[in-house]
Amino acid sequence: MIEITRLTKRYGGKPAVDDVSFTVRPGRVTGFLGPNGAGKSTTLRVLLGLDRPDGGTALIGGRRYRDLRHPLRTVGALLDGAGPVPERRAVDHLTWIAQSNRIPRRRVHEVLELVGLTGAARQRVKGYSLGMRQRLGIAAALLGDPEVLVLDEPVNGLDPEGVRRVRDLLREYAASGRTVLLSSHLMAETAETADDAIVIARGRIVAHGPLAGLSAGHGSLESAFFALTGDREGRGGW
After folding, report:
1. What separation in angstroms does the CA of 138 have from each of 53, 76, 141?
2. Average pLDDT for consecutive 10-residue bins of the chain (238 residues)?
3. Which residues form the signal peptide (predicted)?
């Protein structure tokens, strides 16, 4: 389970997240939604130990990320901007990660097959398309067969088949009793994938609960999102 409690993070004295609290339960896919600059990425960076909070806590299974003994076996993550060395082959990139966390080499080939990259495993990453790079990032997140997945825009750049594959994977992962936190700006895809949603705007949580409840009375998740974030005309991304 992921537990964020009264989390605050400031940059230059300005709060990026302000007294944020929410829980992500196992057995469900939880969408993390918000306009650009709302605080999604900051929250995920603090959760994954990349930034230190100015207040509050961000715990995975009751522990801070930096206190996890085998991080990749507990939480798998995909963050925007995190990628492999372009000159490295995909299979070598995953093997290096596996060795750093004492993950069996066979798991490298399992995740490559899972994301549809077996045929391109020995190609250098610099020759990969955006969608192939995204698949490789998802493979790295799955490498440790973790109990928790934290994914930031996982279907970015994927073709329709890739989107469907990721959607099915996340649903199966949650159905097995594990925890999935999915950060996205794609309302339609989130509506197809998530069970619950957390909506953040201007650094504060404005809604948290089952997806059906958040959408009730609005006609769609997109309409509910604009109403909740105060962006009724959908201009928050510009």
Report:
1. 26, 9, 5
2. 96 93 96 91 95 96 92 90 81 93 93 94 93 93 95 89 91 95 89 94 93 85 88 44
3. none
